[in-house]
Amino acid sequence: xxxYAISDLHLSDAVNRRALEGVAEHPDDWIVLAGDTGxxxxxxxxxxxxxxxRFRQVVWVPGNHDLWTLPSxxxxxxxxxxxxxxxxxxxxxxxxxxxRIPRFSIWCGTRQTExxxxxxxxxxxxxxxxxxxxxxxxxxxxxxxxxxxxxxxxWSQEDGIRPYLREILPGKAVDRPDRNE
Length: 181
Ligand SMILES: [Fe+2]
Fold this sequence. Notes:
Blueprint: E1 3-6, H1 14-21, E2 26-34, H2 41-54, E3 55-61, H3 64-67, H4 79-92, H5 116-119, E4 124-127, E5 134-138, E6 141-145, E7 166-169
Parallel strand pairs: 1-2, 2-3, 4-6
Antiparallel strand pairs: 1-7, 5-6
The structure holds fe (ii) ion (FE2).
């Protein structure tokens, strides 16, 4: 079993929707959808309808785009009501609801959380949002930025989505020079 992660699918983009449709089957593996799946409930619903059939288990984390309600969406839910609707969509598709314990919680990147990877003995820290993929080490902990982003600026369509699914665990052997400390 492997644990994969990807974020920033931004499914309002048709190119990204086509890419997600091409994701291979991983019947033994889990995947973390690490934020910014889209701006609409339908984006999350659609992503899960694909990924729950291609992976053994999907773990969803909301990003800022997921929680936004576009100004044009006058009838759309807002704020906490939208979040709760998204959780309902996840539960309908058999996602696991995790208890509020730090190692499975949203780390929003404030000064209050900047030492949590040490405090909670994290093995790997997964994040997105930047659209700047990379592997970095800090205090000996692996930090994985796993965003897809928008093509052609952030990713190339030529090889499909496969190269952008980041293996988190057990994880590829990576050089650990800590040059990004
Ligand atoms: Fe994004």
